[in-house]
Amino acid sequence: MITPRKATFEGFSFSPRENPMIIKEIQAKAILSKSQVYDYAVNPYVGCSHSCRYCYAAFMKRFTGHAERWGEFVDVKINAPELLAKEIGRKPVGRVWVSGVCDPYQPIEQKYRLTGACLAILGEKGWPVTVQTKSAFVLRDIGILEQAKEAEVGFTITTADDRVRTIFEPGAPPIDERINALERLHAKGIRTFAMIAPLLPGAEGLLDLLAGKVDTVLIDRLNYHYADRIYREAGMGWANEDRFFIGQRDALAGGFEGRGISVQALF
Prior knowledge:
The protein folds into two domains: 21-129, no CATH class; 151-267, pyruvate-formate lyase- activating enzyme (Alpha-Beta Horseshoe), CATH 3.80.30. The radius of gyration is 18 Å and the shape is globular. By secondary structure, the chain is α/β, with parallel strands linked by helices. Helix content is 29%, strand content 19%. The protein starts with 6 loop residues before the first strand and ends with a strand. The chain has nine helices and 13 strands.
């Protein structure tokens, strides 16, 4: 059971999880799927215990049969490595996104190690990989990433203010852990990037925090409405408006470029 933490910010309190995580082992039928972002995606898990309130992947719940809220369950594809080993032998080589609709290094990975096993298979076969996570647990596999072909690791970091993080990303690791992990990966010569999406209040603080730790920054606004209630109850409706997103985007883009970091604005 994961104990809920209570976040407070400007008079707003939010308990992220009232119920224990539901963990279920499942047998997947396939693991290497086509992606609209990269060539392929590998998702060893369905669901994510980070419980990010804005998560675009929440639409996946409709396909799972779960009654629990998104963020309260994780299905574990226990046969993912075996499937991947078979599937990569039948498909043309392409860049693999690990992962598209779950965090591959959420806490359950410490037990099942599916992401690590999949990365090892991809690395042995010379497939390029892009890992995207919010967890410093990716450092466990830094040796695999160093040896992998054209590997890159990105951390989603939406704000520099950990008080804001606890409201919108209640189960995710603290900001400083992500920054430190990026620094270690970058120092090893692994290509790194930060995904500032969605832009949250306090993102301006990332200018100095990310300097020298990433090759690229991607910036996007809130594109889904899952978190609208959270903004209202936190008294931060102003941060869910075009004026905020555009202003933050322009300020961050200029600031990162001035620090020699390339920027890709997605809106």
